[in-house]
Amino acid sequence: MRRTDREVKEFHEMVAIMEKCDVCRIALNDNGFPYILPLNFGMKVMDDEKVELYFHGATEGTKYSLMNADNRASFEMDCGHELVTEKESGNCAMEYESVIGRGYMEMVKEEEKYEALCILMEHYHQGDFPFNRAVMPQTKVFKLVVESMTGKIRTKKKIKG
Fold this sequence. Notes:
Layout: E1 7-8, H1 11-20, E2 24-30, E3 33-39, E4 42-46, E5 50-57, H2 62-69, E6 72-86, E7 91-107, H3 113-125, E8 140-154
Antiparallel strand pairs: 1-8, 2-3, 2-6, 4-5, 5-8, 6-7, 7-8
């Protein structure tokens, strides 16, 4: 990372940023081109400083054929956007917090689907939300097992005018 003064290195700080985000973008390989999908997500944090990101979708689509051909993926999520302008100096910048990383996509087994959907719902509802289980047969659930990630923050205190 070029701007090491903005780098977030601590795992728990990256997780805190991820908890504030409401969309995760994953990039899959589509014949040498990135195929980017903005997705709702849930996250499972393990004790050994590992994280899994959970997603859901329809039962068929391009993303599944791409995952089957190459299960490597990258992800990006960001939040805390605020435009900061300094009229005296004529400078402007955007505040943000972001996390990027990469790992491997896996389909969630049928017997693990309910728990994975609960993880997704928890991210948005902060608690147990009794979702309609009748939609489960029409829903595929998949996850990104994160191998590496890094975070970045730009705030007012770090903007030099």
